[in-house]
Amino acid sequence: MAGDGLAQALQALPPDWHGHYFDVVDSTQDEARAAAGLGAPARSIFVADYQRAGRGRQGRSWLAGPGDALMLSIVFRERATPPRPWRWTSLASVALAEAILELLPDLNPAIKWPNDVLLNDRKVAGILAETTSDGEQLVAVVGVGVNVNGAPADLERVSTAATSLRNVAGQSVDRGQVLLTLLRRIDFWYAKPWPELHGAWLARLWRRGQRLRLLDLGTEEEVVVLGAELDGSLRVRLADGTERHTTTGELIS
Ligand code: BTN
After folding, report:
1. How far is the C-alpha of 197 from the C-alpha of 244, rounded, in Å?
2. Mutation to probe ligand 1, out of 6, 29, 147 (largest number of atoms < 8 A from CB)
3. Spacing, Cα 241 to ligand 1 middle (Å)
């Protein structure tokens, strides 16, 4: 949606955020990672109207037409020992779910393990957290892609399981507002102890306690989703009552 307030929102970031805006870029992840390597401070944010080569998890591409999506990457730095890369994925997903709710209170966002935000069981956003360590610090580049104003036909081309805020809310949504609300929720959770954030993440976990199919390393089985460990691995109960963890599986409804 050209002409919404995305570029302007970069001029109104909350304190301590450092904004960089691109009309077109290959991937904001690459911009953020390169800047992090040159010493960009924590809370540096890279936002694009359009990406030529957006990336998702597991080597997938992330596609959105110009003006349709909110696409951003944030640099975080962490000195904790041991480092907790999972924290950044949960921080972004909880903050985004709450931002959606703040702007569109009738919606019911859920977090699908490991990195999706869903509305009505369809993916509206994905998170891609990529971490590196320089021995002293963990550097996390956290990418967030939100389908904001994609029309049904465009979304169908990407995936039949995708939706957009506009699709669900029945009205177009200003990406700048989504951005600024998201950053405020990130600031809120950034200051909280990890167990509290983890609790908020669990409370929004999609289909928690329900039976689902888990596709993992070529096998598919019925599981009940129990939660996640603090390292981010998914905890499930199998049909025989035993529990196990996975970092590689995919949940199917
Ligand atoms: C996923 O669904 O697997 C994660 C998608 C992450 C997409 C965002 S868009 C902004 C940032 N730049 C990228 O190339 N990817 C992330």
Report:
1. 23
2. 29
3. 36
Site of tokens 């809120």 = 188
Q: At residue 49, does pLDDT exceed 90?
A: yes
User: Is 164 in contact with 149 (CB distance < 8 Å)?
Assistant: yes
Give me 214's structure tokens. Answer: 């888990």
Q: Which two tokens stand for residue 141?
A: 């580049």
- Cis ω on the peptide bond leading into residue 114 (within 30° of 0)? yes
Tell me, in angstroms, the distance from the centre of ligand 1 to residue 62's CA: 6
pTM, to two decimals: 0.95
Amino acid at 241: G
Cα–Cα distance between 47 and 120 in angstroms, integer? 27
Q: What is the pLDDT of residues 55-72, one digit of tens each?
A: 998 889 999 999 999 999
CA distance between the termini of the chain? 32
**E strand residue ranges, the chain:** 18-25, 44-51, 69-78, 110-112, 116-119, 122-133, 138-147, 211-216, 219-228, 234-238, 243-246, 250-252
Q: Report residue 29: phi and psi, to 5°.
A: -60, -45
Percent of the chain surpassing pLDDT 90: 82
Q: Which amino acid is at 152?
A: P
What integer pLDDT is reported at residue 3 of this predicted model? 64
pLDDT at 183 over 70: yes
